[in-house]
TrEMBL record:
Organism: Pseudonocardia alaniniphila
SUPFAM superfamilies hit by this protein: Adenine nucleotide alpha hydrolases-like
Annotated UspA domain residues: 5-126
Region of interest: Disordered: 264-299
Pfam families (alphabetical): Usp
Protein name listed in UniProt: Universal stress protein
Origin: domain of life: Bacteria
Low complexity composition-biased segments: 282-292
Alphabetized CDD domains for the sequence: USP-like (cd00293)
Length: 299
């Protein structure tokens, strides 16, 4: 698995490196990338030189025990360059540092974060300004903070996947968001906060007072995350099926049906295909020709 680390010299870049180091392991490699503006017609040697010097500092900061590569890319904007690299590498996560002007151990959003969060399809780690972890400390604990009526199942699944990927033995802690409480919690080295977010505003509201990195899991489609199904029975065909239509027709004969229940479906993927049902076969005596067809099949 590969994680992309967006790096630029300065406090924000160093905070991103410190946060990314938490996730480094034998199974996770880091691609530390500096994005410079595209210049048509000729290469801007001063920008390339500055990027190379900055990546040299990044390599010294992380050290040789971290599995990482260091590259420079050009793009029309930093966010566009990061997204293109994530797609190219099929990366599992992006790591960003705080924008300039942030308070120490708090996250200040910049233009890159603002452009990236609404567009990315993978979790994004946001490191607060001035964040630093001990050199050998790795991810130890995930704290899932939520501000909805109940925890989001897709976000819980992402947290569990992250825990398995990094071999965590500690259970994931789940807490209701309280800005004052999160800000006064005692956070240990190696701990991160994890939140689900549909927008930049959601993320900033929850993470503004937290002094540790925050993993923002994108939540894209609330409409498809909960769907009310119609479970039905067709008297004519003696089969059962499910459909999103509140008054479903039989998938087999197209005739009327009797709705037996309306279960709530939780899904973060495509809506269910109404043809994907498990038919309940009727006894042969109720279906004309069934016994004769069975005898022909046997011969």
């Amino acid at each position: 698995m590969n994680y992309v680390v967006a790096y630029s010299p300065g406090n924000g870049g160093r905070a991103a490196l410190a946060a990314a180091r938490l996730f480094s392991s034998a199974d996770v490699s880091l691609t530390v990338c500096t994005i410079i503006p595209e210049v048509e017609g000729y290469p801007n040697t001063s920008l390339w030189r500055a990027a190379a010097e900055g990546l040299g500092e990044a390599k010294s900061f992380l050290g040789d025990e971290v599995n990482a590569v260091y590259i420079t890319r050009t793009a029309s904007s930093p966010a566009e360059g990061i997204l293109a690299l994530v797609a190219e590498l099929d990366a599992g996560m992006v790591v960003l540092g705080a924008g300039s002007g942030g308070s120490i151990r708090r996250f200040s959003t910049g233009s890159v974060t603002g452009d990236l969060l609404p567009a990315t399809q993978v979790p994004t780690v946001l490191a607060p300004c001035g964040y630093h972890s001990e050199h050998r400390v790795r991810l130890r604990q995930i704290v899932y903070a939520y501000d909805e009526p109940r925890p989001s199942q897709p976000v819980v699944a992402s947290a569990a996947q992250l825990a398995v990927r990094h071999g965590l033995t500690q259970p994931i802690l789940v807490t209701v968001v309280d800005g004052d409480r999160l800000g006064t919690m005692h956070w240990e080295q190696g701990e991160v906060q994890l939140i689900g977010s549909t927008s930049r505003t959601d993320a900033m509201k929850i993470m503004c007072n937290v002094p540790v990195p925050t993993v923002v899991v994108p939540i894209r489609d609330h409409a498809s995350s909960e769907q009310r199904l119609s479970a039905y029975h067709c008297i004519t065909c003696e089969i059962e099926g499910r459909d999103l239509d509140p008054e479903p027709a039989c998938w087999s004969c197209g005739g009327p049906t009797v709705v037996t229940s309306r279960p709530l479906l939780h899904t973060s993927g495509p809506l269910p295909d109404k043809s994907k049902v498990t038919p309940r076969k009727a006894p042969a005596a109720n279906v004309p020709g069934a016994a004769e067809a069975s005898r022909r099949g046997a011969t």
